[in-house]
Amino acid sequence: MLKIENLTARIGEGDEAKSIINGLTLEVPAGEVHAVMGPNGAGKSTLAYVLTGRDGYEVDGGSATLSGEDLLNMDPEERAAKGVFLSFQYPVEIPGVPVMTFVRAAMNAQRKARGEEEISAPDFIKKAREVGEKLKIDAEMLKRPVNVGFSGGEKKRLEIFQMMMLEPRFAILDETDSGLDIDALKTVSDGVNALRSPDRGMLVITHYQRLLDHIRPDKVHVFAKGRVVKSGGPELAEQLEREGYDGILGEPV
């Protein structure tokens, strides 16, 4: 599904440019959930931004494809329409735009780009209620402006609400566990696990084993200096919890 080969990317231009991704190769097959772990500055979030087309990040070499299609030559809107979704580490506020209006507009924009009919208001409301119940999001929360006045846990639940409504082909979760208490962590994880399917892939970026206790990955990759330095099964995350990055990388981080 997602295939990255020898990817090199930087942030900034000219003398201010800084190389972040350095010859990264990674593959996430359909139906699998892969976790990415690594010290601060290893390139984890940069990878998420490069894959989704965020401004300010430039690709200098290599490739990234989704089901054989070149992601790097698409505009961010095209990538979203192809089914790429990013759950932000720090979700942004959108004053004046109610959650329901925002999510329905996003759904219909993607449907239009794919040549599909818009979702009707009754069908949208029904689906929003069903997803909201699973994530313990009440109707009043969905009427509020996007993320305005939301707690950290509410913002993260809303990110997963958007993902479940959009049903992407490939989801990237950038430190979704950041700032969550135990109950919110389980709620968010349950939502992610509900979207596991044979035709969907996921890349979960995290620092902590606790998230992977709830979202059991098929594979774990350790990043350092912009590339994968070690890969393994879920036990690799457990080893990181015991030994830290020093124990895995063999050098202080």
Automatic annotation (TrEMBL):
This is Fe-S cluster assembly ATPase SufC. PANTHER family: ABC TRANSPORTER I FAMILY MEMBER 6, CHLOROPLASTIC. The keyword Nucleotide-binding applies. CDD domains: ABC_FeS_Assembly. GO terms for molecular function: ATP binding; ATP hydrolysis activity. It comes from Henriciella mobilis. Residues 2-250 form the ABC transporter domain. Keywords: ATP-binding, Nucleotide-binding. Belongs to the ABC transporter superfamily. Ycf16 family. NCBIfam families: sufC. InterPro entries: AAA+_ATPase, ABC_transporter-like_ATP-bd, FeS-cluster_ATPase_SufC, P-loop_NTPase. The keyword ATP-binding applies.
